[in-house]
Fold each of these.
Amino acid sequence: MAEHDKLLPDWMIGLTDRIMKYYIDRELNVEPIILDRHPAPQEGHQYMMYAHIPFCHTLCSYCTFHRFIFKEYKAREYFVSLRKEMQMARDMGYDFTSMYIGGGTTTILEDELIKTIELARKLFPSMKEVSCETDPAHLATESFKHLKGLVDRMSVGVQSFDDNILKMIDRYEKFGSGEQIFERIQAAQELFPIMNVDMIFGFRGQTEEILQRDVDLLMKLNPRQITTYPLMVTTQTKASVRNTIAAPSADLAAQYRIILDTLGKNYNQLTSWTFGRSHDEGFDEYVVDHDEYLGLGSGAFSFLGDSLYVNTFSLRRYNERISQGKMGVERRKRFDKHSVLQYRLLLGLFAARLSRKYFRDVHGVDLDKALFKEMLGLKLAGAIKENPSNPDNLIVTDAGKFLGLVMMKAFYSGMDNVRAELRKPLSSIDM
């Protein structure tokens, strides 16, 4: 692809990465705290609940989320603790408009997951949607069908339909060929109102032709929703695979253009990397639509008020705290107002929903004055432009969507590095 055809020049991508690294290293340092519970809910605020299930049968080499090798007795003990923590949140006065269950493999014990969702729907009457994740292997099990009617949105991690890529990232033996995965998704789509398919681009050897074939297969599959993540390699990614799965000089902009040109013409774009059949459906990046959320379970993050809270990454300490009537929270990072505004600006760009009215109504600031340097930079980069028909809602250009992708990729990589640091001290008795 010629330089003038790129969404952003290479120097701007590199500069963005360096700027994001500076801010992430400065801001994402969570300190130990002594708290029995998270802070209580504030009147008039809306909250989402995130629940983490940190177990997998096998650990994918590129995955940077908090997870452990599955042992049934530990997983069952954990689900009991998770439900107790959920009850604590209700006793504090929390109610939630939606629930997101992430992992790990959330469907690793479907009977425990069903109990957990049923309790959540009973405890929190305002809950309108439950989102959940799974892998291609669970789609084929008979017990998986029991989640019908309980889960509104099921997200399945595919990454690629290309068999060579699946073999390179150790998923072919675990989950089957691209053709088998395609057929399983096709059969399971009818179970849930929304089926989301997670794909990844930026793998070594993933040519534009291979990516185009993946995208064309998605069009044939025709799921309600598609998420196309850029590969994120962090300090937590196994050293043995860092240089073998990621393209050394992948032209993400060229690959992203394929995604925009194909998916963008057939779907509504919900974020820089999520596409859906309608504009009003939930998606994996729940932080976009929920300013505040409470995380339950080991390794879960919460954002409440002006603070990020992190639950213990130790399974042992998590169960001990719950048995003592405490919640899992062990660390906190408080942000000043300017940092919160920068964070919301990033999310607005990423979601292509950058609203001056939102900043006035929710944060009480004039966006152009409060974040003058940031807004000037976005305008000079061609990431945003004025909307003549509605000055309150800025237009995020294709270059802006790609910039949002690059920035969120850096932000999530920074969060993964936080996870890596907090997992380092864990010993065998903590797992």
Amino acid sequence: MARIQSIRGMNDILPTETPLWQYLESRIRDVLSRYGYSEIRFPIVEHTELFKRSIGEVTDIVEKEMYTFEDRNGDSLTLRPEGTASCVRACDQNGLLHNQLQRLWYAGPMFRHERPQKGRLRQFHQVGVETFGMTGPDIDAELILLSARLWRELGISDALTLELNSIGNAESRANYRQALVDYLSGFKDDLDEDSLRRLGSNPLRILDTKDPKTREILGAAPVLADYLDAVSKAHFDGLCARLDAAGVPYKLNPQLVRGLDYYGLTVFEWTTDKLGAQGTVCAGGRYDGLVEQLGGKPTPAVGFAMGIERLCLLLETLAVAPAMPALSDVFIVSVGDSAEIAALSLAEAIRTAIPTARVLINCGGGSFKSQFKKADKSGAALAIVLGEDELAQGHAAVKSLRDSQSEQQFVALAELPDYIGKHFFTKF
């Protein structure tokens, strides 16, 4: 019988990989907590209409990539392809937005039917950060400063570049849209198929094309910055002034538009040249119109999302990933039925006395020699040896596994938890 394999592009995260994920996630949580952000959680499955109305029907995500299906009631449902729309829906539904300020974050899997490759999967994981109720460039700057601090603490700042742009308000984009269409219409025979299709539906998305010939044509295209209204320009100048004052370097990218329709004003990406084609590890911007677009009251908003898989890849590529942690601090070796039974109780007593201790007990039998091999492989600093003879005398042998000069000690079973805490655990 053939073995059942995982779905292509939906990968297992193995025990050898999860410590890096846990390290990264814990650092992210720590930084977000220090900036006063609270966690929110929402479902993986949403009504399809949520993403059509927010992301935009003429986008690759909605047209080609969403996992959409009908449930038994005939409702069209979709595995979330991104988190912002779900966050807005959850906040509006639960009364968290009107006349309130919110700083929120979430984490979890997203789903897009793309061609799997390094750094781009069909099930991928993101941490998203969203803020609501604040209109000025100060909150835009805070989000960028927050992410810049995270890169510094992870040791990857030198590998990342902040790209920045303003796509203005709706009127600015409409004026620019017409100028861009007028320009590109003279190159219809040279545009790639996707760009030609977007020319009549969503021309700003052409700026995001990866086609070399189209990108060459765009080199002489009108620039969105020249079409910004005074308010949009003042907002962007305010953001740049704050980043300059904070010493955060950035690169102005007039062709940066982001791939989702709900963005306006500020857009930004953190990119790297260390991961090949999948160079964006974090991206976001303002989406002041999205709450109203989804049926809520007008609410200013700005946020970003970072890709966990790509950040893990970057940590590994730059060799700044932490070493694999040991599985345990204390390993209990036991031989004989009575000793094995006593070992279970002893392990529980140590865990109770020293709550932070990681105690691993041998299971499945084996000789002293084979169990010591397991103890060494576990990374434990200390072995407790309990055989029938030790049990009969009411004590256990305590042996350091990392200090060859340390002598083995015999300690009464009742005194072991306190002895370990006093003489060994502070050294771990």
Amino acid sequence: MAEDKEVTIYDIAKHLNLSAATVSRGLKGSTLINKNTRKKIQEAAKELGYRSNTFASNLRSKQSLTLGVLTPRLNSHFVSAALAGMEDVASKEGYRLIISQSLEEVEKEKLNAQNMFNNRVDGLLVSLAANTENLDHFEPFFNRRIPVVFFDRVANHPDSISVVIDNYTAAYNVTKHLIEQGCTRIMHLGGNLLRNVYSDRLRGFKDALKEHNLSLPAKFHQVSNLSSEAGAQAAEWILSLPPDKRPDAVFSANDTAAVFCMLRLKAAGIKIPDEIAFAGFNNDPISLVIEPNLTTVDYSGYNIGKTAAKNLINHLKGVIDIFMTDTISLRAELIIRASSKKK
């Protein structure tokens, strides 16, 4: 065949002296075609360099068998685990994933959403960027009844569902644990309050303090991107305080900021947990590398991704109607380690 000519089923049919309909069925593995004939067809297709035209097939079926995934960033243990869960489900069900990251910027998230729409994805799995304020850029999906499932960082919309954990209760339990260890001046390293995960964790933190008649001193709640740099900067601020004005515990809304805050304080001679106890959130591998090991909240990114993808695909297959559900909440567990054990 000419190098620039795409091989078709008609070429295979001519090569084998069969009808195009027989070749088409043979390529699809139809049992209506004799086993030996199917084998000849598949061998000829390989020999001639035939490629299945999935685009044309998808146009006929009006399905792309593709799911779009929008994430804040890919260099995250949680996101990697969530994507693994999605991929496991999708591949078993015959779907593929198109994955993009917003790098925490809403403008990039808008562009990625538009690209997904133009690529005719069958559904969308979304964890929102830090500064996303509304869902207007998802309206094309909602208007066309293309299902959208939010996971972890979510927002309410009547035409979508969310897969989350109970961040409020998890943060309440962390704070209560620190109080039970004798801590009375607890600092919170939080994230952008536009996102449910950080606003809910702050509410749980504050309510635990309030129920135990404890106050939140000025600047004991610090908002950042919770990066390693933000953790180290929080430590520098703590060290700038007189010893009797420093917090006796730090609860960080993720493990990264907690660990790098600990490292800086340890380098300055602060004893953990004796002088300052620590707790994080996410149970990232880094929580077991730091010494003492970090108290944290464990929740499975894999299970969140798997649950989100499974519900989306089941909706597309007509097994369930996700528009009848608002929220799916999965389990989270407090893991107490040496970094917070004062008693």
